[in-house]
Amino acid sequence: MRTASLSRLWQASQASTAAAISSNLRDLCYNAGRTHQEHLVNVFEGILLPCLEKRSHYKSDAYGALHSVQTQYNDHEKLSITDYFSGLGYLLAHQQDNRSDLIHLIKLTSIYAQWCRASARSLCVNPPTVVQLLWETQPNYGDSTSNRAPGRFSLSSSVVPGKGDGREAIRRMRVHVLSKIWPSIFDNPTPVQKAHAEAGVSYAYPTEELFGTPWGHCGESITFASMYTTMQAHVPLGTLALSVKTMTSTIPGVGVSPAEAIMHLHRLQDVVEVLRAAGAMRPMCLNCQHLADSVSARVEDYASVFTSRKAFDFETMAIRLCGRH
Predict the structure, then answer these.
(1) In total, how many domains does the chain have?
(2) Is-cis flag, bond preceding 258, omega within 30?
(3) Looking at the record's lineage, which domain of life comes first (predicted)?
(4) CA atoms within 13 Å, Cβ hemisphere of 295
(5) Contacts of 74 (CB under 8 A, 6+ apart)
(6) Beta-carbon neighbour count of residue 124 at 10 Å?
(7) Which domain holds residue 15?
(8) What is the pLDDT of residues 84-112, one digit of tens each?
(9) Is residue 153 classed as helix, strand or coil in its secondary structure?
(10) Distance between alpha carbon 25 and the CA centroid of its chain, in Å?
(11) With 50 as the cut, is the pLDDT of residue 320 above it?
(12) What is the helix (H) or strand (E) element at residue 61, kind and residue range?
């Protein structure tokens, strides 16, 4: 598989116009010899390009119905991609191979945040609140005869908040996809909404995210679906969610954003220190914890691990998280 370098992806993420963004995404999708090129082209032509042309974060048909593109994403043979930012995560995840180490994956997730920030301006919407990475921490776990590729990972984002329509339709489609493969009942109110209600936060229809995160809002709705058999087989996984706003905002007195700063770092402890100091990491919400717990999935939240006060050996952690032996 031919891969794009992180420096090239970072430079491409600096595009500031819809035309420049479209050109950069096209180059990444049509790179000759890339694995899953057919799927990448379908996502670009079916979702990314139409969204940029119409300045919308989703595509609809002549009757106003949400348009989606079905594509293979790790475990899922026909995962529905319904919005620009999910398609962007899919594209970026396929620019790197499964042998990428953890620092590499964190940098890629940071680049994803930068792409989201730049794209949101062209799409006339707010950027997603978070981008999320899900990866196999022990790729050789279990049956050695399995045909699973080693060290696989997925990227996705939360649904855009506030400005722009289509949010409810995108969330409903994400829930529809999950409900077909997940032995969990998606009751309402959600676990987050129940917690908000117990805290005295009242429901505020139709902007239901103000009442608490609805089903289908989080990036995990895509990444969990993309690795559903892996999760249900109890293969150890790690997850890390980063705030798009925090990662792409200039650090006072420094002059660069956390996303740009970590591009120049090479040690895991230094990368994590930037994330901690910036307050960029976001813990997994109650909804996502419920989904993971309902199948007894072994998903460790590294927003919590990295922000804990206990001391740990970063070198050992880097080896363990990426399956290096």
Answers:
(1) 1
(2) no
(3) Eukaryota
(4) 24
(5) 152, 154, 226, 227, 230
(6) 12
(7) 6-321
(8) 999 999 999 999 877 678 999 999 999 99
(9) strand
(10) 17
(11) no
(12) none
